[in-house]
Design brief:
alpha+beta; eight-stranded antiparallel beta sheet
Length: 249
């Protein structure tokens, strides 16, 4: 089995959910379940954030002109249904069902066309950055998948490859870059250190660092957050392994 991780970085006005999350940078959406057949897609998503952010996310899902995960840029006539399963002060759970038309497109359906059936999907949406993690057999054509995906999203989003690896390879210390970071994440982290982003007080802010790297601020923020998350988890894992290997007195 193979793991494929990539991100779509949406331009303003191209995806209502991405626009909503960009307005509420502390909010997050992750998939709890996502399944697709040739003609249908259904999923359950879990959103966290402040009450105002969750209200805006709910509104974006319920009142959008077309299904939130559709890659079309206008109403394609698909049958869709979204229901709120749970909504508390800091949590929102949504169920969505989508029956596509010939004009519809989505990441899962493009994946099925090029990577075969039985693909597993996991998503995380932060700001304009929409990350997809796919587990597939490895027998499909990944290059054709990306070519089709890029042609479908057009100018509405930039695609960024984050990782592709064999799922049997241990996740710590095996991927490209600095011990599992993507090249883009490693470059962002190095630039942040070199320019004093982690100094106290900071010598540079995110906006200036993004200008230096010539990337959108939301993209840089995402890359730094993912790099920090990876390094923190690796540190904790290594500490636990060291503790398990120590000899008690």
């Amino acid at each position: 089995m193979r793991e494929l991780v990539f991100a779509l970085d949406y331009e303003p006005g191209c995806n209502r959910v991405a626009d909503t999350l960009a307005d509420h940078p502390d909010a997050r959406i992750r998939s709890l379940s996502l399944h697709a057949t040739d003609e249908h897609l259904w999923r359950v998503d879990h959103a966290t954030g402040e009450p105002t952010a969750l209200a805006a996310i709910e509104d974006a899902f319920l009142t959008a002109d077309y299904y939130a995960a559709c890659l079309a840029t206008e109403d394609c006539g698909a049958t869709q249904e979204t229901q709120v399963l749970d909504h508390t002060a800091d949590t929102l759970v949504l169920y969505s069902y989508w029956e596509r038309t010939p004009r519809c497109a989505s990441v899962p359906h493009i994946a099925r066309d090029h990577l075969g059936e039985g693909v597993l999907f996991e998503t995380r949406h932060e700001g304009r950055h929409y990350t997809w993690r796919l587990i597939h057999s490895g027998e499909g054509d990944v290059a054709a998948f990306f070519a089709d995906l890029e042609a479908t999203v057009g100018d509405c989003a930039r695609t960024e490859m984050l990782r592709t690896t064999d799922t049997s390879v241990p996740p710590v210390g095996t991927a490209a870059g600095a011990g599992g970071l993507s090249p883009e994440q490693e470059a962002a982290l190095r630039a942040a250190v070199e320019h004093g982003y982690y100094e106290s007080p900071r010598a540079v802010d995110v906006a200036d660092l993004a200008d230096h790297l010539d990337v959108p601020r939301s993209t840089l923020t995402y890359r730094l957050r993912r790099a920090e998350e990876y390094l923190a988890k690796r540190y904790v894992t290594n500490e636990q392994l060291a503790g398990e290997g120590s000899t008690p007195l």
